[in-house]
Amino acid sequence: QTMPVLLLLSFCGDQPSPHSLHLIHGKGLFAKRSIKKGETIFVERPLVAAQFLWNFLYKYKACDFCLRALETAEENARRLSGIPGLSLPHPELCRVRPELHQACPQCQVMYCSSECRQAAADQYHRALCLGPSQEDPDHPINKLKDAWRSMHYPPETSSIMLMARMVAVVKQAKDKAHWQKLFSHFCSRTANEEEEIAHKLLGEQFRGQLALLHSLFTAALYDDHLSRWFVPEGFRSLFALVGTNGQGIGTSSLSQWVHACDALELPAHQREHLDSFIDQLYKDIEKETGDFLNCEGSGLFLLQSSCNHSCIPNAEASFPDNNFLLHLGALSDIAPGEEICISYLDCCQRDRSRHSRHKILRENYLFVCSCPKCASQTDELDVTSEEEEEEEGEAEGETEGDELEDEMTDV
C-alpha cells in the first residue's frame, strides 16, 4: 500500500529522456528503439493530481495524495449496488489495507498510508489544509469548490483543485523557480492564432463564470511569487493549461478484485459460478449507480502531455496500480523513429465523423488533426455524426442558460 520506491520516471530536474524515447520539445514523443504491442513504454507519476469534486462529494473515497481507492472491494460493491448485506467471494484478493490508512490530524482528509500523508504535507497540503474549517461553507477554498461544482457537473473532466495544488506546490517549495519552470513545460495557450481557434471555455459567453472563479481563486490562494497566475490573463492561461493537459485518472478496489478473480485457476464449475456472480453484480451496479464506478480525478503528467494526438493511436494510458501512476502501453508495434501517439478522444468520440472529431479537438485542444485517419477522410462532407446531431437536437430544447451551463462542464 506504500508508494513505490522505484519509478521508471521521476521528475527531479528537466524533462527526462528514457533510453527508449526521444523527446522533441513542442513536437512530440518518438521511439528510440522497437517497442512491442502490449509493452509498457513508461510509468510516470504526476506533478500534481486531485480527485474530482463531485466524485468526492458522492462518497467515492480515495487517497488525497495518490488517489488510491480506500474502500475495500466489498464496501465498494455494497455502496455501488445498493445491497448492504452483499458478501464477495475470495475476499483475500482485495488489496485495500484499512489498517494502513491515516488521516490528516488537522482536517481529517484521508490517505492510504503514512508515506502518502507525509508526501502530501511536504508537497502541497500544508498550504491547503483547512483544519477545523474543513466543513465551513464560508471558508474561501470551500467557496471556490462550491462555485466550481455549480459550473461543472458530472461527468467531470477537470477540477479547479488541480490549479489550487499547482499554487500550493509553488508556495511550499524551497526552489519556487524550479517548479514554475516544470509547470511552464505544459501548453497553456488560450488560443491558436495560426488556425484562429480559441478555447471554447474562454469565450465571451463564459466571461461571468470565469470572472467569478478568478475572484474566488485569488481570494483563497493569492501568492506574491505567482502574481502572474492571478491577473485575469494569467488565470485564463492556467485554466487553459489544466483543461488542455489534465489527464483523467480512475481507480477502483472492486475492479482490482475482479481482475484478481479473473486470474484465479479454478475448476470449471467454480469458474462458471464466480463469473455468474460477477456478471450479476455489475448488472446490479448498473441499475443502482449507472456508469460512475471509479474514484475519478485528473493529474498533470509531463511526459504523457508531450504525446501528440492521433485518431488511430499506437499507445494508451492506464492505471493498473490502483493509484495515480500512469502506465503508457503500446497498442501496436512501434518502430524506431516512429512517433508515439495517444488519443485525446474517448472510444465513442473516435468513432464519430471526421467533422465531429475536429470540432471536439478544435474547441478543447486548439488544433486541427491531420492524422492518417483524418487525412484519409478529407473527402467526407462536413457534417456531424448521428450522435452529435442527437446531442444538438436535445440542446435546442434547453434554455440559453442551460446550454452554457452544460458546455461549461466539458473542459
TrEMBL record:
Catalysed reactions, semicolon-separated: L-lysyl-[protein] + 3 S-adenosyl-L-methionine = N(6),N(6),N(6)-trimethyl-L-lysyl-[protein] + 3 S-adenosyl-L-homocysteine + 3 H(+); L-lysyl(36)-[histone H3] + 3 S-adenosyl-L-methionine = N(6),N(6),N(6)-trimethyl-L-lysyl(36)-[histone H3] + 3 S-adenosyl-L-homocysteine + 3 H(+); L-lysyl(20)-[histone H4] + 3 S-adenosyl-L-methionine = N(6),N(6),N(6)-trimethyl-L-lysyl(20)-[histone H4] + 3 S-adenosyl-L-homocysteine + 3 H(+)
Keyword Flavoprotein appears in the UniProt entry: no
Superkingdom field: Eukaryota
Record-level Gene Ontology MF annotations: histone H3K36 trimethyltransferase activity; histone H4K20 trimethyltransferase activity; zinc ion binding
Keyword list, A-Z: Cytoplasm, Metal-binding, Methyltransferase, S-adenosyl-L-methionine, Transferase, Zinc, Zinc-finger
Gene3D superfamilies with a match to the protein in the record: SET domain
Keyword Phosphoprotein part of the UniProt annotation: no
Main location: cytoplasm
One of the protein's GO biological processes: negative regulation of gene expression, epigenetic
Domain SET stretches: 4-345
The EC number(s) this enzyme carries: 2.1.1.359, 2.1.1.372
UniProt biased composition (Acidic residues): 379-411
Chain residue ranges for the region called Disordered: 377-411
One GO CC annotation: cytoplasm
Protein name: Protein-lysine N-trimethyltransferase SMYD5
Record lineage: Eukaryota, Metazoa, Chordata, Craniata, Vertebrata
